[in-house]
């Protein structure tokens, strides 16, 4: 694993005597797109706000950009972080470019960065349009441009595709995926949708009820999905007996026989055996346990990966 750009130890946050984030040990490798995944109310936004110093932790440590975050160095650390938490803020009566110019002056960023980030988020053609006239997707992209204005090393995005239509979601996803390779950024992006994280992230952390229940690469999560062959015939009982006779154990579930993963040659031999015994084959397909099922099992506490 690469050197971590974020690491928390025993991070906790309590509201009204109730722990909303519990003993969180989050590790984000440098250069990764880290998907922070969990149901609504799981503690995602609270965690991200603590990383940005917007909410003070009840306990634990936060190390970002190789520095332990505290009240003294918070502002210097934040100079290298861009963020979009909840909905983007903007002045509706100003154009997209004018909104960015205000931020550029406040952050003392180079003026040329305005044109660069507008190009990155594909808003160059709408830079002179008032922000109040932007579509929701354009407003989200303007918020992303604002987060990128200082060319941060770390970008933290909280549910950036919320409320977008399918085209807007795809566009935002493509933008996020380009950032690490083109600009050397590390991205932390939260979502309650596994399908979104699956298409963007290299690493994933799953949080449920304030507890980090899973953390690893997306590739490793995929490996956890159950893999088998589903065979449906016109006589499943006879097919199961014939396969067992040849050393292939199957499990009957509903209208199909579930077989273990087999080499192509073995599958071809099975088909030949069944047809030779005049057992009609209706369907054979490769099945994996859906990632959504894994996510639900993790967040409902029904599985330990």
If you average the pLDDT, what whole number results? 90
Q: What is the radius of gyration?
A: 25 Å
Number of domains: 2
Helicity level: 25-40%
Distance between the termini: 19 Å
Q: What is the percentage of strand-forming residues? A: 25-35%
CATH architecture of the largest domain: 3-Layer(aba) Sandwich
What's the main sheet like?
6 strands, mixed
Write out the strand line-up for the largest beta sheet, numbering strands in chain order.
Answer: 7-8-9-4-10-11
- Order of helical and strand elements: EEEEHEEHEHHHEHEHEEHEHEEHEH
Descriptive report:
By secondary structure, the chain is of the alpha/beta class. It has 2 domains: 220 residues, P-loop containing nucleotide triphosphate hydrolases (Rossmann fold); 62 residues, Alpha-Beta Plaits (2-Layer Sandwich). The chain is 36% helix and 28% strand. It is built from 11 helices and 15 strands. It has a 6-stranded mixed β-sheet, with helices on both faces. Strands 1, 2, 3, 5 and 6 form a 5-stranded antiparallel β-sheet that branches. Strands 13-14-12-15 form a 4-stranded antiparallel β-sheet, with helices on one face. A hairpin with a 2-residue loop joins strand 10 and strand 11. Helix 3 crosses helix 4 and helix 4 packs across helix 5. The chain is elongated, with a radius of gyration of 25 Å. The two termini are 19 Å apart.
